[in-house]
Amino acid sequence: SETLASRRDRAFHLHPSSNLAALRTEGPLVIVRGDGVHVIDEAGNRYLEGMAGLWCAGLGFSERRLAEAAYRQMLELPFYHAFSNKVAAVSAELAERIVGVAPAGLSRVFFANSGSEANDSAVKLAWYLSNAVGRPEKKKIISRRRAYHGVTVASGSLTGLPFAHGDWDLPAPRFLHTETPHHWRYAKPGESEEAYAERLAAELERLILAEGPDTVAAFFAEPVMGAGGVIVPPATYFERVQRVLTKYEVLMVADEVICGFGRTGQMFGSQTFGIRPDVLTCAKMMTSGYVPMSAMLVGDGIYRTLEQQSEKLGVFGHGFTYSGHPVAAAVGLETLRIYEERDLLAHVRRVAPVLQEGLRALADHPLVGEARGIGLIGAWELAKDRDRRESFDPKAGVGAQVVKNAQKRGAIVRVLPGDIIAFSPPLIIEAHELRELLARAEAALDETWEWVRANGLV
Ligand code: PMP
Predict the structure, then answer these.
(1) Tell me: the pLDDT tens digits for 254-298?
(2) In ligand 1, which atom is closest to the CA atom of 284?
(3) Is the minimum distance from the CB of 149 to ligand 1 under 6 angstroms?
(4) What is the value of pTM for the model shown?
């Protein structure tokens, strides 16, 4: 049978954050099976999946009920669509169930198939609404540097990471970026979290005023920034930002693709951080990653405007073939039933301290600059010099070394730009499994520290 070695030269599809040189020399890690919070490679090695795949598999990798729900739905009604006044019953039921757990005021669900599509849809929605209310010049969109909102032309423009822009000719016109609320890295010496949050809100206001408030339609933000470095905002940040947005009639779009469905210990990160979104996008854990599905939620006010404008135009001009796909909807519905039956949010809140305290216990490890997180998402930001907040040379690959050393020990974690080691395990993880994950990651840090010293990187 085929081995990893023989697969090495095959054309794998590329993906953001693929290290192409390592892919060429070492080949990919080929995963063949899932078992609870573990995945198993083709050689039979088991890994504790500290990232739930790609922040996705909330219910782990072997939940029979999700597989059975998909199978039953395939027998019952494998496909239907939401075009021209039709809808699959199961999609309508999922929409209703999502509204039942969504932040207050969000009452309508538009389904798509990926986080990028949901955010792309939210950009188009903001433009459409501005036209509908006779303000066609109100079209600029603001997001934050280091944000990750996807890779399509619009969502890639929202993304605030260099790899999504550069040679891709993005961001497109009308997409602007403001500061990232990363206190440890960017606050002035001695600046409190509150003063820092105030300053960032003032900077946002300055940007809106400089551009002209009549030209700014929407602000996009992840409650906790994921791929940009697991950045937890100061407690007062969103409150201050929203004051500015309200003042200039700028829509607040919460990108809950990572935080949504329990990551922070509540159903949505918006609930954790006091965000009152006009629009909310979600994906990933909505189906525990089993099938692709995403959604955009809006309130009655926006929905009525859409309805009126569409009536004027004769049709609503946006939607995908697979929007609300019945099999995906059946999996989403079963996911939410399991959340309720097992009181999964209470479980997350119960085990989260094991992760958070475990990460912070190594805050003074010589490689760690800051340990941070909330709920079941966390990170170590590595630093060459903690007090001076000095990073390692990105080319040295220190973070990648930690990931490699963890993988050797049967733990999957991820390195984000800036040598940030991210943790985002399945929500079903038990306390003893979290301790095991942390122990393996700590051993990986120690080994990497030896390697850093041996290579004269400090
Ligand atoms: N928003 C956030 C916060 C994300 O983390 C991601 C994906 N990691 C996306 C949007 C894009 O989702 P997708 O890859 O499904 O297009």
Answers:
(1) 999 999 999 999 999 999 999 999 999 999 999 999 999 999 999
(2) 15
(3) yes
(4) 0.96
